[in-house]
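Students often ask why inverse folding is considered easier than folding. One informal answer: many sequences map to the same fold, so there is more than one right answer. In these notes we will look at a single instance of the problem. The structure comes first.
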């Protein structure tokens, strides 16, 4: 019999039924320290009281009206995002992929109303991940995601990361925009050199292109600033965010300058559920938490401590780990053994960590994690590494 759930996931046979702060509890009662946060989603921990209260209060009032009417929570959240970013305007979506889709439409529409309808090509970079829709897998460019879905959506091309000569060769009369993650997540927690990102800004300025940042994973405090672009001294024209902005509730957003958004007039885009009252209640509460005094300072402090401890972990287990990479609380362990082996051993020890490309184990703990919880996580990682070393020695 065909599974009642479409079998597109290779799921681990664990069901988590409760969460509390940095901890998850499975059906069998076993407790796990969560260094995955639902892939950078549960940035404020599980069952955060302020987010629970915001959702519960709104749930007792109104769930949905549609975007045919004014939604007060959209106005307040958009005002906060604009006040704390480069943007002039915001559109709310249900997911990061939807935000990326709108970014592509906005970039093409911008060129169209600017008198350049021939400019529709979006250039992205190898190792990227922008979503699972037909357009976002075309932007991602990974053959694994494209296989079997017919002709690739037109107008998307990739060049090697940090290869300016290749980029300049690719840019032509048809190019509308560049899209890049300032820190690649799925691609292996690969930081992008700041000078390369600044060079992209200059290229876009010189050639009349738009610069799109995909901060779906890095946004809302993950790198130690509210947005990763703040480390660079430049700003994008368009930015996609999701994941942490909802603290676990499905929510994404596109932020843009007024110039970049000038083509998006009435009727050019829409959404049924995006920006609904429930999402806006949680989003407002989540952003208030991220903007609270001391929050980002805490992220920076605990990230520095975790990075230091990971360096010691690598040094203590040279047959297992190669290096540490990443920024803030978006860190990766480059492995000398299959990353899946370590993920399994860590889970058996009681720690949830994630896979990433380039044989990397991805660490994305809640931004609210404490130093004492980091120490517990390091004990579990050392235990997992020691188990793998013993297994390796026994096999020789």
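Output (designed amino acids):
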């Amino acid at each position: 019999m065909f599974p009642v759930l479409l079998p597109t996931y290779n799921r681990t046979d664990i069901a988590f039924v409760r969460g509390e702060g940095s901890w998850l509890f499975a059906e069998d009662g076993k407790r796990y320290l969560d260094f995955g946060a639902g892939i950078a989603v549960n940035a404020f921990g599980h069952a955060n009281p302020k987010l629970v209260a915001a959702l519960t209060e709104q749930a007792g009032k109104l769930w949905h009206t549609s975007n045919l009417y004014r939604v007060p929570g959209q106005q307040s959240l958009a005002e906060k995002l604009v006040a704390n970013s480069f943007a002039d305007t915001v559109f709310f979506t249900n997911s990061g992929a939807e935000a990326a889709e709108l970014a592509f439409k906005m970039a093409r529409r911008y060129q169209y109303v600017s008198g350049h309808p021939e400019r529709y090509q979006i250039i992205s970079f190898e190792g990227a991940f922008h979503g699972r829709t037909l357009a976002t897998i075309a932007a991602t460019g990974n053959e694994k995601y494209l296989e079997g879905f017919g002709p690739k959506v037109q107008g998307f091309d990739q060049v090697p990361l940090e290869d300016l000569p290749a980029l300049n060769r690719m840019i032509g009369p048809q190019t509308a925009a560049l899209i890049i993650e300032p820190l690649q997540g799925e691609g292996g927690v690969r930081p992008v050199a700041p000078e390369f990102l600044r060079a992209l800004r200059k290229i876009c300025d010189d050639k009349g292109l738009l610069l799109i940042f995909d901060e779906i994973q890095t946004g809302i405090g993950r790198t130690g600033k509210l947005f990763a672009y703040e480390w660079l001294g430049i700003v994008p024209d368009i930015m996609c965010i999701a994941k942490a902005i909802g603290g676990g509730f499905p929510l994404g957003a596109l932020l843009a300058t007024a110039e970049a958004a000038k083509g998006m007039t009435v009727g050019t885009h829409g959404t049924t559920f995006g920006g609904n009252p429930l999402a806006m209640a949680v989003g407002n509460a989540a952003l208030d938490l991220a903007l609270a005094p001391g929050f980002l300072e805490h992220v920076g402090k605990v990230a520095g401590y975790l990075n230091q401890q990971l360096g010691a972990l690598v040094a203590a287990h040279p047959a297992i780990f190669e290096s540490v990479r990443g920024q803030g609380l978006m860190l990766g362990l480059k492995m000398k053994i299959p990353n899946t082996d370590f993920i399994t051993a860590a889970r058996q020890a009681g720690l949830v960590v994630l896979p990433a490309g380039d044989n990397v184990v991805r660490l994305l703990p809640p931004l609210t994690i404490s130093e004492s919880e980091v120490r517990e996580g390091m004990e579990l990682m050392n235990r997992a590494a020691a188990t793998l070393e013993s297994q390796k020695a026994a096999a020789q």
